[in-house]
Amino acid sequence: MVDAAERVTVLTGAGISTDSGLRDFRGPQGIWTRDPAAERASNINVYVSDPEVRRSNWARRASGEIWAEVAPNEGHKALVALEQRGKLHLLITQNVDELHQRAGSDPDRLVEIHGTTRKVQCLSCENYRAEMQEVLKRVRAGEEDPPCPLCGGLLKSATVSFGQSLDPISLARAERASLECDLFLAVGTTLAVSPINMTAQLAVQSGARLVIVNGETTEFDYLADVLVRDSISETLPLVCGSDTHPQTPKR
Ligand SMILES: [Zn+2]
């Protein structure tokens, strides 16, 4: 199907990054399971109204407890190979880890629908956007809740928090790419998070094939032409045709 396809739209979720050692949010060892304060900070109303939540959130980030240093894996690289074959129409990711860019995916063909935790933005003005590490330097230098250097507003990681809307332009791009593709590839997502999960359904409704690669069942398994329920980093190179020395995935 990938060989026959001309425009492949891909949606990725947390499952593609777990083989990089990135912890999920809600699993037994999840970031929020182990640290309920981090979950509270992910609600925009709590974040804006409670300075203590912001201070402890910045302190946790500055101490490196939230995101360990991780590298892209074979799953991310397989999608780069798909792009190099000229087949990638758009890569939509629910992930906020920037591992697709670090693997070499073209940022112009990438939509980070839930934002990125590697950058910081101002909640008051639209003019300030900076690397997370730049702001964490200020935190380590003693600023417990660093304000926007341009307007004095509150700073927050450039993720879409609970209670915030998705960027309408990014959502429109994702939806259009789903209508335009002839193959939709969903990877490492249970397709349970609305509204971005609906892109898979849109693609099917407009006549595209649907391939789901995920370690567990998803909401839209019943719509899929092919289900691959196996290790993503082992199987995605085979699916994308990027593995020059194919091996039979262990099962
Ligand atoms: Zn500002």
Can you lay out the helices and strands and say which pair or pack?
Elements: E1 8-12, H1 31-34, H2 36-41, H3 44-49, H4 51-62, H5 74-84, E2 88-93, H6 99-103, E3 110-112, E4 115-122, E5 129-131, H7 132-140, E6 155-159, H8 168-180, E7 183-187, H9 198-205, E8 209-213, E9 226-228, H10 232-240
Parallel strand pairs: 1-2, 1-7, 2-3, 7-8, 8-9
Antiparallel strand pairs: 4-5, 4-6
Count of distinct strands = 9
* Helix-strand pattern: EHHHHHEHEEEHEHEHEEH
CATH architecture of the largest domain: 3-Layer(aba) Sandwich
Helix/strand class? alpha/beta
Give your account of this protein's structure.
- The protein is of the alpha/beta class and 251 residues long.
- The protein has two domains: 8-22 and 72-114 and 166-240, Rossmann fold, CATH 3.40.50; 31-66 and 117-159, SIR2/SIRT2 'Small Domain'.
- 33% of the residues lie in helices and 17% in strands.
- The chain contains ten helices and nine strands.
- It has helices at residues 31-34, 36-41, 44-49, 51-62, 74-84, 99-103, 132-140, 168-180, 198-205, 232-240; strands at residues 8-12, 88-93, 110-112, 115-122, 129-131, 155-159, 183-187, 209-213, 226-228.
- Strands 3-2-1-7-8-9 form a six-stranded parallel sheet, sandwiched between helices.
- Strand 7, helix 9 and strand 8 form a beta-alpha-beta unit.
- The radius of gyration is 19 Å and the shape is elongated.
- The mean pLDDT is 92.
- Zinc ion binds at residues 122, 124-125, 128, 148, 150-151, 153.
